[in-house]
Amino acid sequence: MKIATWNVNSLTARLQHVLDWLAVNPVDVLALQELKLSDDKFPHEALRAAGYEAAVFGQKTYNGVALLTRAPLLAADVARNIAGFADDNARLIAATLEAPGGPLRLVNGYFVNGQAPGSDKFDYKMSWLRALRDHLREELAAHPRLLLVGDFNIVPEDRDSYDPVGLAGTILHTDEERGHFQALLGLGLVDSFRLFEQPDKSFSWWDYRMLGYQKNRGLRIDHVLVSPPLVGQVRACSIDRTPRKWPKPSDHAPVIVTLG
DNA sequence: ATGTCGCGACGTTCGCGA
């Protein structure tokens, strides 16, 4: 079973990329972030023709997340955002998928960017991350086989940044953000990517500016975390840079996990 | 080069968010 996550930076602008990518990577689940479209604009027909059903939590202009699956999801089981945490933004969607070995809980997030430490947006990021942690503690109790995937907007360690010294303390690199990532690991979640030997300077996002991709000036901010019962079943985890090389790409690349 | 995208608004360019 293969599960992927991809921040597409507008599904309207990137639908053809998603379809092209799925044609060569027929994953069982694709978690999308930054749809930047409302539910009524979601391209259900094109994706259904490609073999995927979608649970959608859209928003006009900003944010928006979706879970694409080959097998239908139980609609009654789909959750949007964090229960008890008031939020104007569509950032989290969760659903349960029947799978060999038991149901899998898929939690797909577009984490708050936070702009800059000290800003109001950074305060919102910290509140959101605190609420997410509390929420996941409950989700894990209810669904032991769980994956937390998405654009975390957190660089977990220095080796996940092209310039850990120059960018130390700046957004995505602060101790507070990293503390929140560690807190998620403290719930028992494991970073799939680091279960395997990986090339140095492996990143999932590159700035559009300053030839960021060509110079590999990137960050690893898109992650797949798995709960304890799943750790032993992760067979592979990789970042697919292929679509980042296509014309008019998303600034993010997909991350793919194989569960055995 | 405050450098690139995507979106949307009383738009034909600008501000915002990333």
TrEMBL record:
GO terms for molecular function: double-stranded DNA 3'-5' DNA exonuclease activity. It holds the Pfam family Exo_endo_phos. Its EC number is 3.1.11.2. CDD domains: ExoIII-like_AP-endo. Keywords: Hydrolase, Magnesium, Metal-binding. Residues 4-252 form the Endonuclease/exonuclease/phosphatase domain. Coiled coil: none annotated. InterPro entries: AP_endonuc_1, AP_endonuclease_F1_CS, Endo/exonu/phosph_ase_sf, Endo/exonuclease/phosphatase, ExoIII-like. The keyword Magnesium applies. Belongs to the DNA repair enzymes AP/ExoA family. This is Exodeoxyribonuclease III. It comes from Ottowia pentelensis. The gene is xth.
